[in-house]
Amino acid sequence: LVVFDARTHSNNCRGTHAAATRNQGKHPMPMLDKISEARAAKQYAAIRGFYIHCFVYVLVGLLLVLINVLLGDKMWAQWAIGGWGIGVLAHAYAAFIKTPKSLADWEAKALEQAGTKKT
Questions:
Q1: Does residue 9 have a pLDDT over 80?
Q2: Which of 51, 72, 95, 115 pairs as cysteine with 46 (C-beta 3.0–4.6 A)?
Q3: pLDDT tens per residue, range 42-98
Q4: 39: helix, coil or strand?
Q5: What is the DSSP code string of 63-107?
Q6: What whole-number distance in Å separates Cα of residue 37 and Cα of residue 35?
Q7: Which of 110, 107, 96, 104 is nearest to 44 (CA)?
């Protein structure tokens, strides 16, 4: 049988909380958490933006092909689709290659600064 003593529990918690409060500004872990959250949010936003861009690209591309076929003129839609496709590829590069590298560089710089501020 385990008996819970509220007074002992309260005193133990107070000591732990006081120690945590004393060391709050000295340990870089809260900053690491904020950096990781910011990095994840930025990367998520970049990838989400890319997928939205792809979705709109496909829809508008299909609409352009449909208009081109219905008008019966010379094929012109491929030029618009091709030009925009270059933009989609650039967006993919920015979202999947450049953004993770720049975020890693930014994170390393922030950690360096946190280390220098600590001392």
A1: no
A2: 95
A3: 888 889 999 999 999 999 999 999 999 999 889 999 999 999 999 999 999 988 888
A4: helix
A5: HHHHHHHHHT-S--HHHHHHHHHHHHHHHHHIIIIIHHHHHHHHH
A6: 5
A7: 96
CB half-sphere exposure, 75, CA atoms < 13 A: 6
Locate tokens 């010379």: which residue? 74
Tokens of 40: 């994840």
Angle separating helix axes 29-71 and 99-118, nearest 10 degrees: 160
| Signed CA dihedral, 72, 76, 77, 78: sign only | positive
Q: Please give the mean pLDDT across all residues of the chain.
A: 77
Q: How far apart are CA 88 and CA 49, in angstroms?
A: 11
**Do the Cβ atoms of 88 and 54 come closer than 8 Å?**
yes
CB-based contacts of 26: which residues, under 8 Å, 6+ apart?
Answer: 118
Alpha-carbon Rg of the chain, whole angstroms? Answer: 27
The more confident residue out of 118 and 93 is: 93
- Around Cβ 26, how many Cβ atoms within 10 Å? 7
